[in-house]
Amino acid sequence: MSSLLLIAVLLLGTLPSPCLAFQPSSTSLLVAPLRQSIYLQQRLLATHQKHNSKLSMGAVSSSNALSEDTNLQFQDKSILLTGASRGLGRSLAHKLAECNASLLILSGRDEVALQQVKKECTEIASSSSSLKIEIVPCDLSDKSSVDNLSTKSLSIAQQLHTTKAIDILINNGGISSRSSFLDTDISIDEKVMQVNFFSGAQLAKAVVPSMVDQSSGRIIWISSIQGKLGTPYRTSYAASKFAVQGYCEALRSELTSSNVHVHIISPGYIRTNLSQSAIMGDGKNYGQTDVTTANGKDPDEVAATIMNSVASEQNDFIVAATFSAKVALWLKVLAPSFLDKMLVKRFEKQRIELKEKTS
Ligand SMILES: NC(=O)c1ccc[n+]([C@@H]2O[C@H](COP(=O)([O-])OP(=O)(O)OC[C@H]3O[C@@H](n4cnc5c(N)ncnc54)[C@H](OP(=O)(O)O)[C@@H]3O)[C@@H](O)[C@H]2O)c1
Ligand SMILES: *[C@@H]1O[C@H](CO)[C@@H](O)[C@H](O)[C@H]1NC(C)=O
Ligand SMILES: *[C@@H]1O[C@H](CO)[C@@H](O)[C@H](O)[C@H]1NC(C)=O
Ligand SMILES: *[C@@H]1O[C@H](CO)[C@@H](O)[C@H](O)[C@H]1NC(C)=O
């Protein structure tokens, strides 16, 4: 263990300090040490996997292909997907349409975008597919809207197969936050918690009983690396994703014996509009595409990796993590106080940058 610690620290020493995790300008600076350390990284990850098989560091495959097994796992299933209007959710919808699922319920607030995604899915589905696609708009920040989503979804699923329920719930809809703790009103914490966590819990409570009755089902919850490691300017977001992590771990222990699988997926950066649509501490829209997000992984590739990993029964895994995010997660285990110092530095750096930007 101590030799691993040494490797991690030495490795990090070769990287410029602010690049520790998720830093916009770090990408190019990272390339050289990254190449040098690929061997070490593989060693580190291999050892890590031996120690903790639950937390796998799956890389995003460079192909969008779904495995044969994935097709089988999603075939003939009734699936409820939130956040389907764009980004990762739209890519997941496309991949699900490829799998010959029987029912795909697409949810989000933007009905026009959802209609477009439905059209794309119809085109993707094979002609022999009996896929039925329904749109149920919902505002995840509104409890009664979420209630309506689950009621409508269950009734659509029952109409389609009198004996079947929702087989797979994918909690993907979410919002990020961008503001320092001192600038964040408690109502923003509550809103982010509602959208990213409570809405998903509410949906799970509605659909799990029939999964237990039929002794099969899956909850696939899109969390974030921020659900494993909190970083500055993300108090609300990190809290909501940590809630997802703890909730799902506890839930899994209760549902496994009923053959209901609980999957937690923790992505790094994906090239979506997540930073554009992030909320600031005063409720205003952040409205900027961060360089990290712009340089993120392709959402189609991430969607394929997620579905292949779920089909191979991985419960808790990371996708699309940058090298520095992986190192940071390692440091959290091996040298937590060192990591704390790096995060403090990072906050100071971002604070100065922000001041320069606004003055
Ligand atoms: N992009 C990344 O780098 C990244 C990294 C880690 C985790 N994730 C997670 O991946 C998931 C998908 O995000 P994305 O990257 O695809 O971002 P995105 O492009 O901003 O998409 C977010 C989706 O969530 C929906 N949504 C947001 N607020 C909602 C609300 N109040 N009610 C209903 N739906 C709402 C949006 O639909 P409407 O606007 O139509 O409502 C949209 O379909 C999120 O849970 C996010 O936390 C993303
Ligand atoms: C898709 O599912 C339908 C109904 O279950 C079946 O008739 C059809 O052959 C399937 N198509 C493919 C490509 O698997
Ligand atoms: C929920 O559905 C009920 C009954 O259809 C409707 O009256 C109510 O306005 C809906 N609530 C929301 C927030 O959509
Ligand atoms: C992001 O939003 C812009 C408009 O604001 C849209 O044109 C673009 O397609 C969106 N990108 C994704 C990946 O959803």
TrEMBL record:
SUPFAM superfamilies: NAD(P)-binding Rossmann-fold domains. GO terms for molecular function: oxidoreductase activity. Its EC number is 1.1.-.-. Residues 1-21 form the signal peptide. InterPro entries: NAD(P)-bd_dom_sf (IPR036291), Sc_DH/Rdtase_CS (IPR020904), SDR_fam (IPR002347). Coiled coil: none annotated. One of its GO terms (cellular component) is membrane. Pfam families: adh_short. The keyword Oxidoreductase applies. Keywords: Oxidoreductase, Signal. Belongs to the short-chain dehydrogenases/reductases (SDR) family. Putative oxidoreductase. PANTHER family: DEHYDROGENASE/REDUCTASE SDR FAMILY MEMBER 7B, DEHYDROGENASE_REDUCTASE SDR FAMILY MEMBER 7B. This is Dehydrogenase/reductase SDR family member 7B.
